Amino acid sequence: MRALRTPLDEAAVRALRAGDPVLLSGTIHTGRDRFHKHLADGHPCPVDLRGGVLFHCGPVVVRDPATDAWRVVAAGPTTSSREEPYMAGIIAREGLRAIVGKGGMGPRTAEACRQHGCVYLQAVGGAAALLARRVRRVAAVHLLDEFGATEACWTLEVEDFPALVGIDAEGRSLFDEVRASSRAALDRLLSPTSPTPAL
After folding, report:
1. CA-CA distances (angstroms) from residue 60 to 3, 73, 75, 120?
2. Which domains does the chain have, with CATH numbers?
3. What is the signed CA dihedral for 60, 64, 70, 73, rounded to 10 degrees?
4. pTM beyond cutoff 0.85
5. DSSP letter string, 125-144
6. In 3D, which of 94, 101, 122, 115 has the Cα closest to residue 33?
7. Taking all residues of the chain, what is their mean pLDDT, rounded to a whole number?
8. In a 10 Å sphere around its CB, with 0-12 CB exposed, 13-18 middle and 19+ buried, how is residue 9 labelled?
9. In this predicted model, what pLDDT tens digit does every residue of 55-77 receive, in sequence order?
10. What residue spans of 41-117 are helical by DSSP H?
11. What is the DSSP-derived secondary structure letter of residue 191?
């Protein structure tokens, strides 16, 4: 298990390999579709992402009426492939070191990870309440009025947030490997020379 703390050092990120389990601590920022499009349209990023982590997540947050502080009650990853059109440019321009999400990303993102020293971290889907327990504090929120709570950019302080390296800084993708092995297994099953399974 690799312990990572933000801001992430390029050498430490490049030492990670696809399949490595990690525990992430420090400051991370959330971003979904509208945030990525906002950056791709040339608007300045409201947070400094250099050496940082962008979490594909629309957290469920509540406000404590006594303290006016935000609290995250669910923080599940959202499907990352929706951000494929934008991700490579954001990695290059903003100096990201890690993306957290679910389901993997495409070849442009994998190449950007290789070129710029970034990794894609797979978080556990379907465990939003459990992952929220790793959020120690909501440090800030940006673009809330413009985008609403789900699409806003939340700055979160996390401790021992669990994930798995899905795409490493050499561009190796576990998702591509699973697709290729699944395709090969299916081709073998569908082959006319394949033995008929016993009933």
Report:
1. 26, 6, 7, 23
2. 2-190 (3.20.130.10)
3. -30
4. yes
5. TT-HHHHHTTEEEEEEEESH
6. 101
7. 93
8. middle
9. 999 999 999 888 989 999 999 99
10. 84-94, 107-116
11. -
H-helix segments, the chain: 10-14, 33-40, 84-94, 107-116, 128-132, 144-151, 174-190
| Residue of 36, 38, 56, 142 with catalytic role | 36
Beta-bridge partners for 162: 23
pLDDT: which is higher, 195 or 67:
67
Name 93's Cβ contacts closer than 8 Å, sequence gap at least 6: 39
| pLDDT confidence bin for 8, thresholds 50/70/90 | very high
36 is catalytic: yes
Say yes or no to pLDDT of 18 above 70: yes
**Which residues neighbour 53 within 8 Å (Cβ) at sequence distance 6 or greater?**
6, 8, 24, 26, 27, 28, 29, 96, 97, 98, 99, 100, 121
Encoded tokens for 16: 């990670």
Q: Using one digit for the tens of pLDDT, what is the confidence trace for 127-163?
A: 999 999 999 999 999 999 999 999 999 999 999 999 9
* pLDDT tier, 176 (very low <50, low <70, confident <90, very high otherwise): confident
